[in-house]
């Protein structure tokens, strides 16, 4: 019985991953306005009924796509305590990951940019950005507490600036990949934030 349930869950997870992948491909190729549950099902090789069963609506599909594309973008941070080291590793890892960004992450950046003018996307990406900023604020606050970050730094302002910089680099990479050398840039951007925040550089 347990084995059957696990197999059913595995099938469900596989189908959902395929549907999210298909949705991301359609967003990258044709934009969010062309996205429908029927087209996602057709691209993934499933019926529209299965897509509806998994997501229920286009809005829920977009929410799941936004969450899925952020999960695990910078691996190896889970075991680190909040603070300056985790913040700098996130920045370095994020810029480095943009060098090999896949279709899911390209879709996320395109949807994020489009959220400024698309009412169906705005609430999703406000929530995603706030979750990102909350993690960054936690790192800065922890760094202030442990003395590695200058006490005059404002965590909320740093969070806004870091999110803007990282997402902006990502969009530039999408527009002109040859102009954005992520391997060189990751070092300079990480060092900039280290100099800016570190108490030892004050």
Write the layout of secondary structure elements.
Elements lengths: L1 H29 L6 H8 L3 H8 L2 H13 L13 H14 L5 H12 L7 H25 L8 H21 L6 H16 L5
Helix pairs in contact: 1-2, 1-6, 2-3, 4-6, 5-7, 5-9, 6-8, 7-8
Can you tell me about this structure?
Residues 13-73 form the HTH tetR-type domain. Keywords: DNA-binding, Repressor, Transcription, Transcription regulation. It comes from Amycolatopsis balhimycina DSM 5908. This protein is 72% helix and 0% strand. It is an all-alpha fold and 202 residues long. It has two domains: 2-65, Arc Repressor Mutant, subunit A, CATH 1.10.10; 72-201, Tetracycline Repressor, domain 2 (Orthogonal Bundle), CATH 1.10.357. The model has no long low-confidence stretch (mean pLDDT 89).
* Main sheet specs: none
Radius of gyration: 19 Å
Structure summary, number of beta strands: 0
Spell the H/E element sequence: HHHHHHHHH
Determine the CATH topology of the largest domain: Tetracycline Repressor, domain 2
Q: Which structural class do the helices and strands define?
A: mainly alpha
- Say which CATH homologous superfamily of the largest domain is assigned: Tetracycline Repressor, domain 2
Percent of residues in helices comes to: over 70%
Instruction: Specify the number of helices.
Output: 9
User: Multimeric state of these chains?
Assistant: single chain
Q: What is the total domain count? A: 2
Instruction: Write down the overall geometry.
Output: elongated
GO molecular function, one term: transcription cis-regulatory region binding
Pfam family, one: TetR_N
Protein name: TetR family transcriptional regulator
Keywords: DNA-binding, Repressor, Transcription, Transcription regulation
